[in-house]
Amino acid sequence: MSEIELGECEMTRTTPSRPVDVEAVFPELSGHALTTTRLHPRRGNPSIHDSSVGGPLLWPEDEPWPVCAEVHRKDRGELLAHVREARRMRDDFRRRGTDPNDEERERWEALEKRGRYAPDVRPEDPIPLLAVGQFYARGIPGLEAPSGCDLLQVLWCPFERHDGHQVHLRLVWRSTADVGKPLATLPEFPVVGREGYVPSPCVVHPETVREHQYVELLPADLQAKVDRWTNWDDEDSPDYQSDLSVAPGWKIGGFAAWNVTGPGEVPAHCGRSMRLLLTIATHEWDGGNRIWVPVEDQRSTGIRGANIPTDISVSRWGKMYVFVCAEDAYHPHWIITQ
Ligand SMILES: [Zn+2]
Ligand SMILES: [Zn+2]
């Protein structure tokens, strides 16, 4: 497998047009549509000046790095350095197209061993959060930053099982003009609770697409019409839910798909409504949504791992939706996993 097959050299991503113009079939759907930006993260070498997943953040040298001070075990897990080395080995195996030899297999297994790698760190000790990604408003249509800000940065604690919520995620809104000297080396805690919290560096290829509200959240009469229109007997005929409503993968804005739990409450603590800010996804595509695979990636769909470019794996079902208050993005966010 060459780098080109991984898609690293392609500059843009183009979602194929939908098999049917569903708003021509149901004009009232235009009231339940949004423009969404698919981020299309793909492996690369982003700098602090790029939007990225798993790349370095533009962080002022004189600003404290955020920490997780919640009480939970922090001494045991996998070593971050091991996670990264194992991934380099895996990428080599894939590129080579052969299985690891005995020596490599032994090393590989050693790298995956969990252990008490930070015996001196107590549950109440603060540890630096891990950078997940950053997104510049200039290159990402639909990224609505609060007044005066043009950059969204996302960090999380690399351990799960926080009290009352699984993931400890932090959103930072920033004005790039206010960043003086940037921090050269981002702090990292050497142990991670779960390998799936560690992103591999990806650049993004923002592309706007039109999405339509998740079927169960459409008005009842429209839902019934869509249901009657769907030809359930013909596998090849368009299916609203998988083909025409919500795009898979990482994205900014748009709609959530509630396949796992059915539509859930997204309460803003201030009583106002919330909007979907960011979707963090394990898979960019899977067997059920190949119709959304960008033209540039279609020859890569058979390559193992090509649909998990960030190496992040969230929740059992692979989607983490980060909602923010529609009135004030600084109000507490809300996370739903599906
Ligand atoms: Zn934590
Ligand atoms: Zn609010």
Write the topology of this structure.
Blueprint (H helix, E strand, L loop, with lengths): L2 H4 L15 H4 L7 E6 L3 E2 L8 E2 L13 E2 L9 E2 H17 L5 H10 L15 E2 L1 E7 L14 E6 L12 E6 L16 E2 L9 E2 L3 E6 L7 H10 L10 H6 L5 E2 L21 E8 L37 E7 L8 E4 L1
Antiparallel strand pairs: 1-12, 1-13, 2-11, 3-7, 3-11, 4-6, 5-10, 7-8, 8-9, 13-14, 14-15, 15-16
Bound molecules: zinc ion (2 copies).
The site of one zinc ion (ZN) has 7 residues, from loops.
Short descriptors:
338 residues; alpha+beta; 15% helix; globular; binds zinc ion
Roughly what percent helix? 10-25%
Radius of gyration: 21 Å
**Spatial sequence of strands, sheet with the most strands:** 12-1-13-14-15-16
Q: How many helix segments?
A: 6
Arithmetic mean pLDDT = 93
Main sheet makeup: 6 strands, antiparallel
The chain-level structural class is alpha+beta
- Terminal-residue CA separation: 32 Å
Bound molecules: zinc ion
Low-confidence stretches: 1-7
Find the count of extended strands (DSSP E, 2+ residues): 16
The topology string of helices and strands comes to HHEEEEEHHEEEEEEEHHEEEE
Please indicate the percent range of residues in DSSP E strands (runs of 2 or more): 15-25%
Q: Globular, elongated, flat, extended or rod-shaped: what is the shape?
A: globular
